[in-house]
């Protein structure tokens, strides 16, 4: 497993946009003892080796909470894909993953998900020159070409939007925000003293808001608690906002300082001095970039006026507070290509789609 985790560090160190992930974080994410995802899912891992050297890796997963497709087909997943630019290596890796999926009676494989659609999803197919934001994948241009040569086809594209926080609000957004909050609606920041409860509240809204969307897999209570603990160092009370309707949380938005900006030169290591550098950059010097990974409005409001305007007020609150903290550029990600309301929200604020991540799939022989 240590070789598996470290392999991308050797493969991609020459890519100026690649950011080495923290090795300790990767160990925890792939540990069944530490990651509660493994309580409802199973995974297997492979390394491709040639002439005594590791040249590629892949995982295969079956998630008991992942929904079947519209035709009722159960889906197996692959992920954590990293390999040299060699068709034979890609073919061997995907054959191993497909064999594991087929052996479990599944006839469709989809990915990459590392390990879940709620973690890193999709393969980068455009926007290679910009470094990834935290918890977003980065892949070489040849990876998609190699998958397509093996018969993989697009299932969905996921978009990342870049938002310049210093740009003036576009007239459409300014007109809505300028009218003030609707009657019965209040905005409030996260209460850090009740972090676990606050994270549980926002994930409750998230699970409700996105239920039924393509590929949606709900967070379990154990995953919510784990997420709260994992994100505790990054969550700033002024960068997590709730909209309450008649005193009840109905919508939320989360902005996270971009950890990748702070760890880019640490080579994945926090010892001996990485911890000190990371804490200084996050708590003292600050970072200039951030990511909005989670947002949601309860479905009971989704089709009405409140459902349309609450996200505008939430993003505007994040914008004001992020600017006060020195954050200048935010990525809103990811957004399904056919999620018209979310795309419209991002574009109303002047954000532009600058990266595309593709989820691939392939039918397996019976």
From TrEMBL:
**Residue ranges of the TM segments:** none
Q: Where is the N-acetyltransferase domain?
A: 185-366
| Alphabetical list of InterPro entries matching this protein | Acyl_CoA_acyltransferase (IPR016181), BcerS-like (IPR039968), GNAT_dom (IPR000182)
Q: Name one GO molecular function term.
A: acyltransferase activity, transferring groups other than amino-acyl groups
* The protein, known as: N-acetyltransferase domain-containing protein
The organism that produces this protein has a lineage beginning with: Bacteria, Pseudomonadati, Pseudomonadota, Alphaproteobacteria, Acetobacterales
């Amino acid at each position: 497993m240590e070789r598996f985790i470290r392999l991308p560090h050797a493969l991609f160190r020459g890519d100026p946009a690649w950011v080495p992930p923290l090795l300790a974080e990767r160990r925890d994410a792939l540990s069944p003892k530490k990651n509660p995802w493994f309580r409802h899912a199973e995974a297997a891992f492979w390394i491709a080796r040639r002439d005594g050297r590791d040249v590629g890796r892949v995982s295969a997963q079956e998630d008991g909470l992942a929904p079947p497709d519209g035709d009722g087909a159960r889906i197996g997943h692959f992920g954590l894909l990293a390999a040299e630019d060699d068709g034979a290596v890609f073919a061997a890796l995907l054959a191993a993953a497909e064999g594991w999926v087929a052996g479990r009676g599944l006839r469709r494989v989809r990915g990459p998900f590392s390990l879940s659609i709620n973690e890193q999803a999709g393969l980068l197919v455009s926007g290679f020159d910009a470094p990834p934001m935290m918890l977003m994948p980065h892949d070489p241009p040849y990876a998609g070409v190699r998958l397509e040569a093996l018969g993989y086809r697009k299932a969905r594209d996921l978009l990342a939007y870049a938002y310049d926080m210093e740009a003036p609000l576009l007239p459409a957004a300014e007109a809505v925000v300028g009218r003030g909050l609707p009657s019965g609606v209040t905005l409030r920041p996260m209460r850090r003293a009740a972090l676990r409860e606050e994270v549980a509240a926002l994930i409750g809204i998230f699970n409700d808001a996105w239920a039924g969307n393509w590929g949606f897999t709900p967070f379990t209570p154990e995953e919510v608690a784990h997420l709260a603990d994992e994100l505790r160092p990054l969550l700033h009370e002024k960068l997590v906002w709730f909209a309450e309707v008649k005193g009840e949380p109905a919508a939320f938005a989360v902005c996270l300082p971009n950890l990748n900006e702070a760890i880019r030169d640490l080579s994945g290591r926090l010892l001996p001095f990485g911890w000190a550098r990371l804490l200084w950059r996050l708590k003292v010097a600050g970072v200039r970039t951030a990511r909005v990974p989670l947002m949601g409005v309860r479905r009971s409001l989704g089709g009405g006026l409140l459902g349309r305007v609450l996200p505008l007020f939430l993003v505007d609150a994040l914008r004001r507070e992020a600017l006060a903290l020195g954050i200048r550029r935010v990525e809103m990600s990811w957004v399904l290509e056919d999620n018209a309301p979310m795309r419209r929200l991002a574009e109303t604020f002047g954000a532009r789609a600058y990266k595309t991540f593709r989820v691939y799939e392939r039918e397996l022989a019976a």
